[in-house]
């Protein structure tokens, strides 16, 4: 052996190795344009949907269609997650499917042959980024919504309270983080972008809506435990697409969301370990 | 050192690699040859833990790949030049790889310089030509300054200068004491660079021998004799169990015997020789003989 290969640093163990994989995944995330495009799309979608939903709410109040007299600005952010989540699901999906699509996954696994560590690092990089994305895009949307809808023309029914805003923005961030974990797990299991996007859409929104509309009580109960409604329950939404209330607490909503995220990651991990890269 | 132990890969009932056992020599260039579909790439993927063997095992310095803590510092592999995100720059690609193995980031600039990609490194990898992608792949393999290097068809897509550069690089890596394991279908290229050859066909080991031996063993490696008594010499050689082919009135070719033996027989018979020389088979010819009958996807001739 030449001298260069002998003068290596002492080999690292456990936590140190995970830190390195995290650093690698972090630099991968920010060195492709798609990340920035997805975040920008999420921000634009968030502002537009929040404005639309908030505007509809103030109109309802002005026309006395609803019993309330005022409404919290950030509630519209919570409802807007239904649409905004797909920009972020795309981003989470690309973190893994773009590696399979380009063949990069083989370089990744050569560098880090413990595949579970790669998936864990991807999840640990995505979750905080998604949380911040939720808080920041939600915060911008709330501010824009408040500035516009507090104009006299909209009846002045909008209000902003620090406690309500913080709660809504934080739960939105947590929801995005958990949905992105479910997605990255699905991506590891499915490998293809098309398959992952379809599976994520069906689990998050397609199936819950179909089941909820089927009319069967069992189907409705199941649909209420799927990610979208579990998320709305967790975020304390008073305004969801079904019009009805979700029959359990915010804490139970969080529990269901965590269960979905874990299920996705476990499925992804099983496939990663078993299948050839 | 890379050791393959009864390595086998099956897809359904198709056996791609069959009970392959060999060690790859340290400090030498080992050429890995075989027809398309012989199982070369699958073998290489199993070495770096991307494909799981159906039976048998591979170890690198005694360890299975997944147990090596900083694999890029032990073995650098170029398996597929396109294994890069097309939207990420070559520089960022190498930075991510370096971080994953605790390799100092100054190595990124160093290896980019080594492969002559300095200027193009900030471009999106998708905008690189196949030759430049190949160079980026080689840069990634060199990143951790590993003692073992493995290249799958490294000269694909390279121009003449690039081919010569890769040849020089492989030689200098081996001269530094590193192990180089390289697959190729370009026999002339292998004849120039390899010290040792591993030949497989239909997933089975056909030959594991030094290059000189592979060529010497070929039936096309022969002794050519020019003599006015070609008939006499031919019958003596045939009697000694040596294959003979008459090339003309005064010329014959003896196969399966060393030049000394042919000379001695001629001397004993009192046959005057005007010329006696060895005709070496090319690696291409030797290889074709070895792999006849094990061509997976050959055209019928």
UniProtKB/TrEMBL annotation, chain A:
Regions crossing the membrane: 36-56, 76-96, 125-149, 169-190, 197-220, 254-272
Keywords, sorted A to Z: Membrane, Transmembrane, Transmembrane helix
Superkingdom field: Bacteria
Protein name: ABC-2 type transport system permease protein
Taxonomic lineage of the native organism: Bacteria, Bacillati, Actinomycetota, Actinomycetes, Micromonosporales
UniProtKB/TrEMBL annotation, chain B:
Any single Pfam family the record assigns to this protein: ABC_tran
Family: Belongs to the ABC transporter superfamily.
A GO term, aspect molecular function: ATP binding
Residue ranges of every copy of the ABC transporter domain listed in the record: 2-227
SMART domains (alphabetical): AAA
Domain of life according to the entry: Bacteria
Protein name per Swiss-Prot or TrEMBL: ABC-2 type transport system ATP-binding protein
Keywords, alphabetical: ATP-binding, Nucleotide-binding, Transport
């Amino acid at each position: 052996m030449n001298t260069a290969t002998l003068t290596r640093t002492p080999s690292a163990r456990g936590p140190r190795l995970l830190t390195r994989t995290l650093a690698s995944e972090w630099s991968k995330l920010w060195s492709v344009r798609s990340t920035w495009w997805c975040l920008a799309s999420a921000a634009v979608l968030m502002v537009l949907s929040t404005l639309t939903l908030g505007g509809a709410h103030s109109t309802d109040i002005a026309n006395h269609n609803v019993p309330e007299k005022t409404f919290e600005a950030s509630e519209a952010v919570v409802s807007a997650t239904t649409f905004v989540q797909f920009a972020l699901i795309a981003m989470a999906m690309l973190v893994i499917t773009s590696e399979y699509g380009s063949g990069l996954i083989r370089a990744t696994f050569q560098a880090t042959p413990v595949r579970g560590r790669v998936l864990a690092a991807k999840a640990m990089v995505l979750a905080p980024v998604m949380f911040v994305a939720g808080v920041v895009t939600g915060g911008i949307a709330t501010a824009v919504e408040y500035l516009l809808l507090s104009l006299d023309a909209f009846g002045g029914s909008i209000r902003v309270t620090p406690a309500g805003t913080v709660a809504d923005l934080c739960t939105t961030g947590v929801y995005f983080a958990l949905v992105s974990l479910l997605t990255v797990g699905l991506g590891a299991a499915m490998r293809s972008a098309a398959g992952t996007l379809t599976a994520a859409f069906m689990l998050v929104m397609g199936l819950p809506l179909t089941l909820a509309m089927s009319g069967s009580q069992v189907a409705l109960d199941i649909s209420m435990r799927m990610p979208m409604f579990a998320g709305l329950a967790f975020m304390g939404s008073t305004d969801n697409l079904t019009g009805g209330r979700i029959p359990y607490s915010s804490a139970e909503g969080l529990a269901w969301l965590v269960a979905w995220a874990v299920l996705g990651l476990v499925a992804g991990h099983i496939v990663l370990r078993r299948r050839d890269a | 050192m890379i050791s393959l132990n009864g390595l086998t890969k099956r897809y359904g009932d198709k056996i791609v690699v069959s009970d392959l056992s060999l060690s790859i020599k340290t400090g030498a260039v080992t050429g890995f040859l075989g027809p398309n579909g012989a199982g070369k790439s699958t073998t290489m993927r199993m070495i770096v833990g991307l494909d799981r063997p159906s039976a048998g095992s591979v170890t690198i310095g005694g360890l299975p790949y997944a147990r090596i803590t900083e694999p890029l510092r032990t073995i650098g592999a170029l398996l597929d030049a396109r294994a890069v995100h097309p939207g990420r720059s070559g520089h960022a690609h190498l930075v991510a790889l370096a971080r994953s193995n605790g390799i100092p980031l100054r190595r990124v600039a160093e290896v980019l310089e080594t492969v002559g990609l300095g200027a193009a490194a900030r471009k999106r990898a998708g905008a690189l030509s196949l030759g430049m992608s190949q160079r980026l792949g080689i840069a990634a393999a060199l990143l951790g300054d590993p003692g073992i290097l493995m290249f799958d068809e490294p000269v694909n897509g390279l121009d003449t200068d690039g081919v010569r550069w890769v040849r020089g690089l492989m030689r200098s890596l081996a001269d530094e004491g590193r192990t180089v394991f390289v697959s190729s279908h370009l026999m002339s290229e292998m004849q120039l660079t390899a010290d040792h050859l591993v030949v497989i066909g239909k997933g089975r080991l056909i030959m594991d021998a030094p290059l000189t031996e592979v060529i010497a063993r070929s039936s096309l490696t022969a002794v050519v004799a020019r003599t006015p008594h070609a008939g006499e010499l031919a019958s003596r050689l045939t009697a000694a169990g040596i294959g003979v082919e008459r090339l003309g009135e005064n010329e014959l070719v003896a196969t399966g015997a060393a030049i000394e033996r042919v000379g001695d027989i001629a001397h004993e018979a009192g046959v005057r020789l005007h010329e006696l020389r060895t005709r070496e088979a090319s690696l291409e010819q030797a290889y074709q003989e070895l792999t006849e009958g094990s061509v997976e996807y050959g055209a019928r001739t």
